């Protein structure tokens, strides 16, 4: 079967389409995968560090978003983060912990007890970043479909995805919390996260090729 022999994305190598002619099965498989990765992002969102000078916490979400896009491809990656956004908007506590969970100077939260937040994205200071997650996963996923998740371009792919999510994130933070003050917007929403994001995208850049190599080893063959 061509889809299994020459998969375009990591998830198709791990979970092949065993019944490609069964449309109901294919849809159910893709929906289950997207929901599963939405919960993966929610889990990583529970790794959060609150800085005293910004309303936006440092979380593990960026790592999860980049891995999700790279593993699922463009439309499933974007769809998974769309599901994640809808879950939080429906008041399922999947977003990063609120200020009451990590408040003050350099407070941190690690998964348990579960302290997720929820709400409509336009009611949250960090709502623009959640929208940006969808764009980032879609872009990284599209690049992964071109093979960038297995080659030297993987680092650039993750960097571009990380940069894209900041566009709506900073725009909304500027409108919602910084009252149009771009100096304050960058101080709150960009500068504190550069080092952490570099570390997370580097980790994501290692995760995807390593996963491909493991799949190839288990199957006793090459990547393509």
Q: How far apart are the first and last residues' alpha carbons, in Å?
A: 14 Å
Q: Return the average pLDDT rounded to an integer.
A: 88
Please state the overall shape, judged from the principal axes of the Cα atoms: globular
- Helical content band: 55-70%
Largest sheet strand order: 2-1-3
Which structural category do the helix and sheet elements fall into? Answer: mainly alpha
> Helical region count?
9
Order of helices and strands: HHHEEHHEHHHH
Weakly predicted, low-confidence segments: none
* Gyration radius from CA atoms, angstroms: 18 Å
Report on the architecture of this protein:
- This protein has 224 residues and is mainly alpha-helical.
- The protein is built from nine helices and three strands, in the order H-H-H-E-E-H-H-E-H-H-H-H.
- It has helices at 2-5, 10-14, 23-45, 61-72, 74-89, 127-145, 154-176, 182-189, 194-219; strands spanning 47-50, 58-59, 107-110.
- A three-stranded antiparallel beta sheet has the order 2-1-3.
- A hairpin with a 7-residue loop joins strand 1 and strand 2.
- Helix 4 (61-72) packs across helix 5 (74-89) and helix 6 (127-145) runs antiparallel to helix 7 (154-176).
- The radius of gyration is 18 Å and the shape is globular.
- The mean pLDDT is 88.
């Amino acid at each position: 079967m061509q889809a299994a022999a020459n998969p375009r994305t990591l998830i198709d190598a791990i979970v092949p389409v065993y019944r490609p002619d069964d449309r109901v099965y294919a849809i159910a498989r893709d929906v289950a995968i997207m929901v599963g990765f939405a919960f993966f992002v929610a889990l990583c969102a529970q790794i959060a560090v609150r800085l005293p000078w910004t309303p936006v916490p440092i979380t593990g979400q960026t790592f999860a978003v980049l891995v999700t896009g790279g593993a699922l491809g463009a439309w499933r990656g974007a769809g998974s983060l769309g599901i994640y956004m809808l879950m939080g908007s429906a008041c399922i506590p999947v977003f990063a912990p609120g200020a009451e969970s990590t408040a003050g100077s350099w407070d941190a939260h690690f998964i348990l007890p579960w302290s997720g937040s929820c709400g409509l994205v336009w009611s949250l200071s960090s709502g623009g970043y959640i929208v940006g997650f969808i764009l980032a996963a879609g872009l990284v996923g599209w690049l992964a479909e071109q093979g960038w998740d297995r080659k030297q371009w993987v680092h650039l792919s993750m960097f571009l995805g990380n940069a894209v999510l900041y566009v709506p994130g900073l725009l909304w933070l500027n409108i919602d919390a910084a009252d149009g003050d771009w100096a304050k917007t960058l101080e709150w929403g960009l500068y504190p996260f550069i080092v952490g994001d570099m570390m997370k995208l580097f980790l994501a850049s290692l995760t995807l090729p390593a996963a491909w190599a493991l799949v190839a080893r288990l199957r006793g063959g090459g990547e393509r």
